[in-house]
């Protein structure tokens, strides 16, 4: 899995790329979309790192939205594409994630990312960046609120409160209670998906646990892929 030749290598290049892509984000449902919502085939993507060996493993797991059964899954292992810089994590992860998605034989209707979309200082987190690059519908579900503000939602499953930018007051996502009495997750629009749809999709995928099943499955798979690479001495090209 080689890193694309034109991939940004410096912080300045990455910031410029975010500024270029940000206006391309479609932060609402497709016009004329019918009641299919996010579609039937929902993919989850996630990555795991071994910084000492300069390895990253990505997983893409495709689920049936109705049953939550795994339809297909794929992994990709390669070299870490970018140094760790807060707000630029997509540049570390996306080459591997794109390869894992490309290895699927079916195209997801929607992709759920373990991270942010519009809930990002420059409104281009991993979910939005991935959506613009691929044209796929995407959303982000994060475990923490990053630098944004929120009030605690009600204790009941399905309760939510706005996630807001303290500098502007803009709603960039929602804190969503996916299980009664369990701490919320933080949902944001990625691309071609409105915030209401993103919240409904998250709740639909998180029927039994705090995190969506897409994220749980992708997290487990990428960790296994990384462990296999470490055990066999795989190195990135």
* Average residue-wise pLDDT: 94
Instruction: Report the sheet with the most strands, covering strand number, pairing sense and barrel closure.
Output: 8 strands, mixed
Oligomeric state as shown: single chain
Structural class: alpha+beta
Number of strands: 8
Please give the alpha-carbon distance between the first and last residues.
7 Å
Structure description:
- This protein has 237 residues and is α+β, with helices and mostly antiparallel strands.
- 27% of the residues lie in helices and 24% in strands.
- The chain has five helices and eight strands, in the order H-E-E-E-H-E-H-E-E-E-E-H-H.
- It has helices spanning 11-21, 90-102, 126-134, 195-205, 213-232, and strands at 41-50, 55-64, 70-79, 110-113, 137-142, 160-164, 171-176, 185-191.
- The radius of gyration is 17 Å and the shape is globular.
- The model has no long low-confidence stretch (mean pLDDT 94).
